[in-house]
Amino acid sequence: MAHIVGAVTTSHVPAIGKAIAKGLQNEPYWKPFFDGFINVREWLKDARPDVVVVLYNDHGLNFFLDKMPTFSVGAAPTYTNADEGWGIPTIPAFTGEQDLSWHLIEHLVEQEFDLTTCQEMLVDHAFTLPMALLWPEQNWPVKVVPVCINTVQFPVPSARRCWKLGEQIGQAVRAWKSDARVMFLGTGGLSHQLEGERAGFINKAFDLAFMDSLTTNPQWATQWNSAELVEKAGTQGIELLMWLATRAALGNGAREVHRNYHIPISNTASGVMVLEPAAQ
Ligand code: DHB
Ligand code: FE
């Protein structure tokens, strides 16, 4: 059976791609953000994942507003990035773990999740930049399975539904007949709002309480509906749903190995956490 090594949850912001391309990691603006990933990479050396299941939201590169699945899973042999209009360089292609993709799809459909299955899929900054923060050489020593949750076009799935999705992803991975070491990577959030009257909105108290809840009371955020979560975290802060689903995939107990929280990166309160299943 596959072995779950843990999870990384992190914000994703296109400006990170420009900072990487320009080598700005040690500039005063960027250092508190990039330094937050040093311990994550140290942890990765021991965790040694073979496969990463990436939970993220596509922002218009693969799905646009005209066709927006609530949940979708990639089952492609390779995944490429493309110009999203942010002016960030594209990144080397990723190799898909197709056996796990189909195992996950079959399990999730059996468990009554009506998925969109993607045998071709472009991956956007929400996928590529967290991967580049974890493996800066961009030589990708892992295979990947992308899982997209719509947080771009409302109505978005509820926190409760995302928790259940994550639980089933975890169960599917644990039941996968493979020796592989599997890691979850959940990207999005934390609090931010890019447009409207509250553009620039950040809620540090809520973000920190949410990060704490992932180990102390992991279903805490499921008490709110999507409108309430938007009120607390901002229109794009609802991307915290990816953190929630990722935490659910780890199973009953989890412990925090590392965290960093820094305001702002672009318009976003940026956070990163490493979590391990409690049983380890
Ligand atoms: C920003 C944040 C996001 O989550 C995103 O997808 C795009 C931009 C930002 O803060 O600039
Ligand atoms: Fe985003």
TrEMBL record:
UniProt cross-references to InterPro entries, sorted A to Z: Xdiol_dOase_suB (IPR004183)
Superkingdom to which the source organism belongs: Bacteria
Any Pfam family matching the protein: LigB
The Extradiol ring-cleavage dioxygenase class III enzyme subunit B domain, residue ranges: 7-268
GO MF annotation, one: ferrous iron binding
The protein's name in its UniProt record: Protocatechuate 3,4-dioxygenase
